[in-house]
User: Fold these one by one.
Assistant:
Number 1:
Amino acid sequence: MKCGILFSGGKDSVYASYLAKKSGNEITCLITIISKNPDSYMFHTPSISKVEKQAEVMKVPLITQKTKGEKEEELKDLEKVIKNAKKKFNIEAIVTGSVESAYQASRVQKICDKLKLDCFNPLWQKDQFELLKDLIENKFKIIITGVFAYPLDNKWLGREINSKFINDANTLVDKYSINPGGEGGEFESFVLDCPLFSRELEIKKFVTSGKQNSWRMEIDLV
């Protein structure tokens, strides 16, 4: 089946892409929403412009759509770009990286129903620790590009999701009820390498910004 991937560059959307292809589907295009609102209800924002590099090493066409990121209104922009992808690439389905957000999943499903597209959520309700372990086992190299909850701070930016990360996340779950996969908005991630990439992306430089427990990392890649 020809699939368009709702693509943020983070661990969930990239892993969903991997699973879709592994199941025999064709990744026909990547669909990225660039939101002006850093606190968008629907869309990932840290380092979102760098998805172009990921699309390049995946050798898959990328369609982008800007949005102001206003709650509910941003869905009109999402529908617009999915409709464009269907027309341009003849996609038959949309793949998302939704894991626990019923808000996100239900709204994407509604758009797909309207446009007569199937909607696949291969990570839906997957145990968060199992998901992190699967990512490591499948050779995904992922870094943290944003943190938004106590006690996470700027020291977490740039950290790779590995065995030590999982151990530290386990402590945070027990002590602070932090979701280990960031499903509560606690953190955002970016994939530097995975089996879908023709080569690993390297960070040339980065800039961090924020205060207290809200920090972002913008990266330049080679």
Number 2:
Amino acid sequence: MKNDANGKKKMHLLSFVQHGVINHAQLMWAHPRDKIGYDYARPPFWQEMGRILERGKFDAIFLADVLAPYDVYKDSYEDTVRYAVQCPVHDPVALVPVIGCATEKLGIGITISTTFDTPYGMVRRLSTLDHLTEGRLGWNVVTSYSQNEFKAMGLKEMVPHEERYERADEFIEVCNRLWDSWENDAIIADAETGIYADPTKVHRVEHNGKYYRCNSPSFVRPSPQRRPVIWQAGQSGRGRDYAAKHAEAVFSIQPTAQAMRSYADDLRARAVAQGRRPDDIKIIFALQVVVDESRRAQIENSGRCFARDHVWPYRI
């Protein structure tokens, strides 16, 4: 929340969803009034969701992602498949133009891992999507945290936690240089001379780093934002350092208001240590909202939803 011009509190809202059969609660798809179980794979579902969120004054829709079915329990993915535990999950990137074409102001944040991609390919994809949404794109930068994703991507071993963030630091450094490789006035589009752009204002990015190499300018004209809004959701110390250095917005799940305050104070202190201002990073905390037919039913079902402590087993 922040104060508006009149000194009143202004709340920022985003909807946290996934391109799959469930978003938060198991068996949502089995409810007789639920549409996710079937309709999540079709454009009208997402277009209507985008319009609803925009009418409700939401700032953005935030699309989480996992890249492969969980297979830790019983050393198998059978129960993941059997009970639709974040399975199946489709690629969230494809939803950006689908939602963007149905809305006018709603931001669209997508989760993409740096671990299995290249900076050049990432910039080309994200810049294109920023054009298609007229400057409403956000990128939730993740490094992938589960071994099943690494196996699915053909890697024998999981990249260690600290190294994943070291790679991600270099990854976004190259991305930023590519986003800046076209000067603001590089495009001339002079029909009389036939000159579209001034090549002296398009600069080759030469990078030979520890993990990545690049020898080209970006292949996409600068998008409305030039680069997407950078999101991050790391909870470990290294993840928080990454957010403090690079992120414009952070998504976090904390169990109490006291924990939220502690997290916010820590992250802002880390941002100052990186030479930034404390309010350079917007922090969005998760709220699990329970809607029901009556207040009594809402309280009872809320108790069922939160009957057990939530334990996040991975450092992200």
Number 3:
Amino acid sequence: MDLAANLQSVRQRVAAACRRSARDPAAVALLAVSKGHPPETVAAAAGLGLSLFGESRVQEAKTKIPQCPGRLRWQMIGHLQSNKCRDAVSLFSMIQSVDSLPLAAEIAKWTGHFAKTMPVLLEINVAGESSKFGCPPENLLADIRRFNALPRIEIHGLMTVAPFAPDPEKVRPIFRRLRDLKEQCESILGAPLPHLSMGMSGDFEVAIEEGATIIRLGGALFGPRGRAGLPPGRGEGGA
């Protein structure tokens, strides 16, 4: 693995996608998906200038984060179970995978316990895949005010995991739909939602063209990390 070369390539591709869509590359945050990688790999990535990292499993993050450079920011990108909310609130600077009102309420309970405010993204199952977590779009629009009313929860935007497709153009409508949903939520709330977390190693350029502000990259940075039954890098949350 040549992490430096991979990162340089990713940054060039991000810049090219931003040129095509008349966007500022500084408006696109690169989140390094470090699940399954040891603290030494995280430290190497941090040494190259990366500061935002994503984990999908609370237990792995709980062990790994204390062994990594202290200046890094960590976000939860995988499915979060209610019984892991206490640890998630204490470990992460943002939870991207809030997919239901009960989960959001449980997070709000623990933010009160830790006397902190938690920025969150609402995870939306845009494609309606039965194998994926995420709030259905129609539920989002019906419940967005209730999400927003929870104490110590700050909704910063939306997140989605697009279906796997060898041709990233096939998932462009998914990203476009998430952007449209964000705009509808902004209209309902009368306030801006700054973030769209969408795009992974196989489709991040299309996601940027459709407005992504956070891209979640694992394989493009660290190399393949496949699991049985999944294409390399397609774990829940992003890679």
